[in-house]
Structures are given as structure tokens and as C-alpha cells.
Amino acid sequence: MSISLVPGVDLHVIPTTKYKTIKLYIRFAETLSKETISQRTLLSNLLETNSLNYSTQADISKKLADMYGASFGFQVSKKGDSHYLTLVLNIVNEKFLPHHENILAEAIDFIKEVLFYPNRSEAAFDLETFEREKTNLIEYIESIYDDKQSEAALKLQDLYFQDNDQQTPSFGTIKDLEKVTANSLSAYYDWMLANNAVDILVIGDVDEEELLSLVKILPFEPRTSPFSPGFYHQPARQNLLEKKEQQPVVQSKLNLGFRTGIYYHETDYFPLQVFNGLFGGFPHSKLFMNVREKESMAYYTSSSIDTFRGYLTVQTGIEGKNKERVLELIQEQLESLKHGDITDEELLQTKEMLRTHYILSLDNGSALLEKSYLMSKYPKACLSDEEWLACLNQVTVEDIKRVANQVTLEAVYFLEGSLSYEED
């Protein structure tokens, strides 16, 4: 069931007896903007920590324990030209409780409290909570950059994309975070609550009409400016961008950014899935078998695709002295796919692994909620399981060759380690 509660606020329900729990998302979506990403991440941390009537994290933890060990939190993410702030709540199905308490109604009341009654006064968030969570978030962002594999991926993103919004990580930046005050965040919270597109997604053994009556207690007002998520399209670059940095680490990181021009459930979406599996997505891929195993030129190597931005990345951990040879080998693997150098066994194995991943996702409540959300926003994604698997099965070597010839290297980021293993 999908129904509009008020303009811009939709409810999607997936009734199933498969699980003993009920999972609920409330997603706030807006156009991706560097100006608000850091605010949204800090806001998600504040709303998760306390509220007006649950003034400490211990109070929230006690309430979750009272709801038979419910789990609760917020997530931030970006997809295409959109940024999402998502409340996630998992509760036990009351049918499995001894006295059949109405946990779902209690859970909706809890959501109303944390979303609509935050810990603030006089148009500012509680200063003690604000300062603590701001400090915690700064330390968290610093820890991400301490992981050199993550840092290389983010530095490649910054190099590859031409748009400041796309260059910014989904969790924001320390520089932008330092500008946020308890007052400015409170003002942004009010704006988000009134203007973001809202989707409430529920999966579990629920009565749809009862759920509908329950969520109506959430005081969402109509959105005045309807939001529709979309893809991010970037003009092709004429020249290859390269950036090199050196740090006192042992293992060098060589990351490559490719343009695909292929988008979620648009033309060549399924051939791209198979191409990526053959290129670097799976353990039998050409990058893994030839760069890592046969040539022993990488400690790790893989590829991944972003079909909301037409973007493909290759990540490697190497010895710095091998950079040029690794670049050469990666290009050789791409060229082999451009020429259709694919055995029947490789093609079959790749399709089988994609099929297995898809079927496993059908048993994952979170994956099903994400799928439901995307199907509600992107009509071309509205395929039955049988149709999805049939589209995968129809991919040919010629299709893969066509995709491979669209894939163009546009950015190379090299984080060179200045230490040797002997020095370490």
C-alpha cells in the first residue's frame, strides 16, 4: 500500500509475516546542498541523543528497553542529486508478546516525541547537548580521514566531480560544521520539518488500516514545494585529471574515477551490472584475478558503480613504486572487456552471483524498504522479481562490450605512502 497522508508526505507499507519484527523508516529528502549537509548530520545526532521529555540518552535507552528492546537511530546518505535523513526504528511484533501489548502505537508516540519535540528552548537547541554532539561529530569525521582507504575514496570524489555539492561527503565537512550554531540549527530543523519531502516506510506483519490511523497522529503539514529526487549528470571531461599526495603511511592508494553515463534502470543498467561484476565487482573479476592474483601488483583491488551519478570507481592498495604498472594493468582489463574477452563460464558465474545477491536481498527488510522507496520515485524500477531476473539473464557479451566502450577514465587520485615496510 502507498498513500499520500498530506501533499509531500507519503506512507508505504509492505505487509509480510516473514519477520518477527516491524521495521519503520521516516525519510526526509531534499535537494543535495553543501550548505545543509553538515547541519543535517549534526541534527540527526541531536535528535537521536535526547528530546524534550527524554532529556538524556539514558532516558531514550530506558524507553527502548521498555518497548522490549526496540532499536532506534538516524542515518544520513546521498543519492544522485538528493540528500536523505532517515529515522530507523525496529520493534518486536506484538503478536509474539505474552499480553499482546500495543507496541506499534507506543512506537509511533515515541517517534512523535523525538521528531517533533526536540530538546530546545527559545529557538535554540540545548547548548550542552549541541556542543557535545558537535564535538563528537568533528572527531568522527577526523576518524574517517584516519582510514586511508576511506580518505582516498573521498579525495577521488572531490577530484572527479565538478559540483561542490557532489564533492561534499554525505556526512559533511568540519569546515562547514564549525559554522553551525545552536540557533542556526534550530532554524534549519524548523525549515526541514516544514519543507522536506517525507516518506514513511513500514515492513512487517501489520494491519494497514490500523497503521494508517496511527501515523496520522504525526503532525506533518503539507509541503508547499514538492520535491522529486533525480540523477546527477556531469558533462564529460576533455582531459584526464590527476592528483598526487604523499603521507607517512606504508600502503599507497591508487583510486580511479570513470564516467559511465549509465543510470538506475535506464538504458544499459543491467549490462552495466554484469560489466562491473566482470571488471572488479567479484572475486573472479579481471581486476582481482589479473592485477592482484596473477601479477601480484595490489593488496586489494575492486570496482564499484554509482548508477545515480553515472560514476564508476576502482580502488586499489599498492606499493607506490608500482603505480604506473598498476594503471597499465587496469586499463588492460578494461580493454579486454571492450573487445569481449569473456568466457561463457565468466559470464554465467557473474550473472549467478548477481542473481544470488538479488534473491538474498528479498529476505532483508532494510533492502526491501529501500527498494520500495526507489520504486515509488523511479517508475522504470517497478519490475517484478521475475522481470528483474529476466533482464539480467538477457545480457549478452555484445551488451557488455557496448557498456565497456562507454566507460571513460576521467580522474586518478594517488595517495603515495612515504614509509617502507622496513621502516614500519
From TrEMBL:
Single GO MF annotation: metal ion binding
Superkingdom to which the source organism belongs: Bacteria
Gene3D superfamilies noted in UniProt: Metalloenzyme, LuxS/M16 peptidase-like
Stretches assigned to the Peptidase M16 C-terminal domain: 179-354
Signal sequence coordinates: none
UniProt protein name: Insulinase family protein
The species this protein was found in: Vagococcus humatus
